[in-house]
Write a structure and sequence with these properties.
The chain has 10 helices and 19 strands. It is an alpha+beta fold and about 475 residues long.
Length: about 475
């Protein structure tokens, strides 16, 4: 057995030597060495794979760019979310509350007797509404004019032609009023003087035509001759006069006017002369603005809130930038052909005596209507200004009429009314503005007694006083 093992060992050794010799002769690598080498290379590769690869540090510009991109995406996402929410919100509301959009019935409180407006308040409210409507109309006209594309010389030609046409169309409501006086010369021969001014046709009926003029223009006249459009002449008589305003209305019988000339006579249409409307507005002076009948001048109203402080009236003066005659007569019309003022140079500024001024027509209308009817207004003898609610709250003064002047030897002075009193009632009617007082005076006959309710200052407060006045 031992011999067998020894023989096998010897053969194995001999075989290994032969194998090594054979591989060396043929330049072959030893498999064992190849395995060892392969294991070593594998370990190196594994070691290489376990090495940590460090990242390059990020550039700051790239970091900022990435931040901006992120913010932009966030903003875009927010905008899209808001739009989607706005679109879906009504749908969600309808799904959650399908009856939520139904109209609800509103019950208005019934108007009580104490809330009803007095006639004076109705007049004032009507004026305020007319002023508001007139403002809206003017704004619409201005917008339409601004929308037009006509410019330069062509636009000026069009404006001039329109103004000329308007003045021509308005000539039918203007009449020439001549005061005729008789006199004798050195040889005792009689002759007539003729002074002419402009008048306004305020009313035209089937029986007569009424013309408004200044009272001084017909003083001491032996005859009054009125010349209408197309040269038709007729004699006139005085229908009524107002001593406080210095105005007169003439009456011309229709029968004395030639039949073929009656159609051309036009009754004047009056506009609003409130300061908030006419101040700065373009106007046309027609009649005799240069002192010559038939003359025409264009211009603008510069102011319309100057109270003339005429007794028992609330009349305002309109000033213009129109250069005319100191003896000018006539009327101011707006671009709708409506009369807004009567030229009256008695109220012109002494610093600019040739600048035309006029009396606002709105407050003259009650005076004109009364003169047309031949009636006289009761005389009280005060000047005052309206105390509005705003003035009342600011100055702690009752709403009514603040008396600014009391005429000497007037019914007001005889009754004990004083400057600084506030008139708040006329008989059983409340008075909140001058228009209310004037309306009541127009309805009061001369010699009639009325009770005025007055608030008179006493220290820091006002006492209520009733004053009985007998008008003249």
């Amino acid at each position: 057995m031992e011999e067998k093992n020894h023989r096998e060992y010897t053969e194995k050794k001999s075989g290994e030597k032969n194998r090594k010799k054979y591989m060396e002769d043929n330049h072959l690598a030893d498999p064992e060495q190849i395995m060892k080498s392969t294991e070593a290379d594998t370990e190196n590769i594994v070691d290489f794979m376990h090495e940590e690869i460090k990242k390059r540090p990020m550039n700051r510009k790239k970091m900022l760019q990435r931040a901006r991109d992120t913010m932009a995406v966030a903003v875009l996402f927010g905008v899209v979310s808001c739009i989607v929410f706005a679109i879906l919100l009504p749908i969600i509301n309808n799904l959650l509350s399908p009856g939520g959009n139904e109209a609800k019935t509103v019950t208005l409180p019934e108007t009580t007797v104490s809330e009803e407006l007095t006639p004076e308040e109705m007049v004032e409210k009507s004026r305020e509404r007319e002023v508001s409507e007139e403002k809206a109309r003017i704004e619409d006209e201005l917008e339409s004019l601004l929308d037009e594309k006509i410019i330069g010389v062509e636009q000026q030609k069009r404006i001039s032609a329109s103004l000329q046409q308007l003045a021509l169309e308005s000539s039918g409501m203007i009449a020439s009023v001549s005061r005729i006086t008789s006199d004798t010369d050195w040889f005792n021969d009689s002759y007539e003087n003729k002074d002419t001014v402009s008048g306004l046709v305020t009313k035209k009926t089937s029986t007569a035509v009424y013309v408004l003029v200044q009272s001084k223009s017909i003083e001491d006249a032996s005859r009054i001759l009125v010349t209408f459009e197309e040269g038709a002449e007729a004699e006139a008589e005085i229908a009524g006069s107002d001593s406080e305003t210095g105005l007169t209305v003439l009456r011309v019988p229709m029968s004395s006017i030639p039949a073929d000339a009656r159609e051309a006579i036009k009754e004047a249409v009056t506009g609003l002369s409130a300061g908030s409307i006419v101040t700065g507005a373009p106007v046309i002076a027609i009649g005799s603005p240069t002192g010559t009948f038939g003359s025409v001048i264009y211009g603008n109203v510069t102011a319309a809130d100057i109270n003339l402080e005429i007794l028992d009236n609330d009349i305002y003066c309109l000033t213009t930038d129109i250069y005319g005659s100191k003896d000018a007569t006539g009327f101011l019309i707006n671009l709708d052909g409506q009369v807004v003022g009567m030229i009256d140079m008695r109220y012109s500024d002494s610093n600019i005596p040739n600048m035309l001024c006029a009396v606002g027509i709105t407050e003259l209308i009650p005076v004109i209507r009364r003169m047309e009817d031949g009636k006289e207004k009761a005389f009280l003898g005060i000047c005052g200004i309206t105390v509005t609610e705003e003035i009342s709250e600011t100055n702690d003064i009752p709403v009514g009429i603040w008396v600014t002047r009391v005429e000497d030897d007037s019914p007001a002075m005889a009754a004990g009314i004083q400057k600084g009193d506030v008139i708040v009632g006329y008989g059983d009617k409340p008075i909140t503005h001058m228009a209310g007082l004037i309306t009541n005076l127009e309805e009061t006959e001369s010699g009639q007694s009325v009770t005025l309710h007055i608030m008179r200052r006493k220290g820091e407060d006002f006492d209520s006083i009733d004053v009985d006045v007998t008008t003249q």
